[in-house]
Amino acid sequence: MDPLPSVFLTKLATDYKLTEKQQEVFVARFSSNQEDWKIAESLHISESAVRNRMTGVYSKLSAKLTIEGNGPGKAQELYYFLSKEYQKFQASTNPDASKPAINIEFLVQQAREMVRADIQERCGTMRVLDMNHPIGLDDIYTHVNILETITGRRRKPIAELLQDCNAYDWERFGLGKRTEERVPGLKAVEKYSKLTILGKPGAGKTTFLKYLAIQCIEGKILGHRLPIFITLKDFAEAANQPNLLEYIAQFNRDLFLQEIFQQGKALVLLDGLDEVREEDSKRILKEIRDCSHQFRENHFIMTCRIAAREYTFEKFTEVEIADFDFTQISNFATKWFKDKSVKPEKFINSLLDNDRIQELATNPLLLTLLCLTFEETGNFPANRSELYKEGLDVLLKKWDAKRGIDRDQVYKKLSPQRKEDLLSKIALTTFEAGDYFFKQKEAERYITQYIRNLPGASTEEEALQVDSKVVLNSIEAQHGLLIERAKGIYSFSHLTFHEYFTAREIIINQQPSSNALHNLVNHLLDDIRWREVFMLAVEMSPSADNLFNLMKNKIDELNKDENIQEFLTWLNKKSLNGFTGTNRIDKLRRRACYFCFECQYQFGILLRDDYMELYELILPNIYVDFYIDYPDNYDLSIDKACKELIEFEYTQSFSPNNIIHKDLDRFCKFYPVNIEMKRELMKLKKELPNPHQTEEEFNQSWLEQRNSWIEKLRKIMIKYRDIGHNWQLDVVQIGALSEYYESNVLLLQCLNSDCYVSREVREEIEETLLLPIAEIEKRKIEKRQSQ
């Protein structure tokens, strides 16, 4: 507390009839701002005497005070009263009314102390969704980035938007390449004195504004200003419709607001312009314009959802909160799971293993949902469609409802359920066309086609077009599920939601009365972009038997080519040679293993992720070393070594000391192959170039005889191991075989998902996977005859 003049204090002591001893302590206390022991020392009295005399002072001024007893709070309140009285005293004795009656910096600091507790209570914690208790803002807050160019106002063609996406996995544009410069949020606040912060639902606008209030009151940013946090919805609905200063004064009567605003020392934080009711909107917009113009030297920061309303604040700079990048996601998760049983590393690693869920985590609200979900079980749900549905429920229903916000209904019959149906139709139409981005007119046309069939819809085309534009804006502003990526170009906010709604339209809306599943299965070969739709479709299905049968039949029809069928026939025969087991899973694993060997070594097909992926999918979540844990299948390792000898090791030139001779010796020594086979291999070894030649001579000799030598080796392998056939497939056939592999991988991934499929269908798929058509038909006939 800054000291007050002793002349003024003496006059006030006389006015309130303080005794001489009370006046002595009163003037000493507030003119020097000293502690009790120092006052006692200067007046040559005891500390208890100082406190007793101050008790008398409080008693004489009790009508002006509300705090009972003594202590720092009582002294602080008395000081505020004295400050206001001194202001009046100065005004009455100062002929120049244009000069401030009191030191404004001093006044602001006192006001900051008065609002500190309120700011910390209102802005120091966050509690969203299903949190059991509030969390301290500092314990969870992650710094946000700002885009100084509003993404929806960029003038970019669709082709350029596609180029901006991630080159490796471009359709995951939620985590794609960043083309707009990202500025730390606090820097933007320091740069612009009047700022409108736009963002999608759940982007963290309110949290950021609360963080600013806390940082300001703690003196870490704009510490010379008085932070004032206002929820615009509450302001708009306040009784008697006060202006902005009157509304603030209702809760802070002793803040010298007029003086602080006139001197430009306020930081006014206006939260949630989009949450103001339509009936209040015009008045609130005018009040913000008037106040920010009249008190232009103050700092004004306002938040609003993108596309919420059309308005103009000429002096305000508009910026957009950027989605979280992975560093921000990791920081948030690290803080969230600190000191909890679930470790943040587990959550982060699980996100890295699932790019679909990782994409949702770019939105802070959905990231909070993911953390809450993961905290319960230590993992994400096996059924991802249920997780996505919960995320959509948050955006469509819960987020506003939990905060008591009742949005204006832009279209009477468009309930949340109807909105989901509408979004599902848009999703399937655009996804089938490969349109991840679509023009505004197209989006409005899809909406018009839908709402014209709702009860009470207008029959006039012009009115429907107007309504469709309003609906599009509301879906973007209220739910953030469709967003404007560039001027007049829209997309779903996350491809995950685009895929989810596509699957929902097929399974929920279309399946009962159409050929929806047949149409879906026709996309089985449409590259990997339909993979997630298939996964979601089987998870959503009450029973996925029909879809699995259609997928399996489609896959079996892929390779009717005679050469491919010959290869699959050999595959079945070879997998059974020397195998005494009867378990269908073991048989399937052997077929998968030989299939992968041939694809990898002979056909040069680069199998996705790992050449054993198909094999590992057959028994998911069980680690098995194929050659150690399966003694009956030890011959598979022999055949793998045979394939390596034929297809890989000897297709290059080697030095005299290389592994050509050594590998043959090692093979014959360590693998228990037929004695006749060993003899022929040793005989063939003698035909190799002399290893004692120079490297140049050796390579020249090898180059001349390599093809004939390898062909002899191949014949030995075919004769004794039935391995090493040259299938003579052309480029088209190899491409078909690659598609066959990918389709079977997808089928097994779907089968291993959290879907409901009958045991009969599951076992039939396992029995017939990777078999030639003739063998499949043969088994079907045998099955019918046995029944």
Outline of this structure?
The protein has 787 residues and is an alpha/beta fold.
Descriptive overview:
The chain is elongated. Helix 21 packs across helix 22 (461-479) and helix 30 packs antiparallel against helix 33. With 787 residues, it is an alpha/beta fold. The chain has a 7-stranded mixed β-sheet. A 3-stranded antiparallel β-sheet has the order 10-12-11. Strands 1-2 form a two-stranded antiparallel sheet. Strand 11 and strand 12 (489-492) form a beta hairpin. The chain has 36 helices and 12 strands.
List keywords for this structure.
787 residues, 3-stranded antiparallel beta sheet, alpha/beta, 36 helices, elongated, 7-stranded mixed beta sheet
How many beta-strand elements? 12
CA-based gyration radius:
38 Å
What is the 3D shape? elongated
Derived from helix and strand composition plus strand pairing, the structural class reads alpha/beta
Detail the poorly predicted runs: 166-178, 621-632
Fraction in helix: 55-70%
Cα end-to-end separation: 96 Å
Tell me the number of helical segments per DSSP (H or I, 4 or more residues long): 36
Hey, roughly how much beta strand do the residues contain?
5-15%
Main pleated sheet: 7 strands, mixed
Q: Order of strands across the biggest sheet?
A: 4-3-9-5-8-7-6
Mean pLDDT: 83
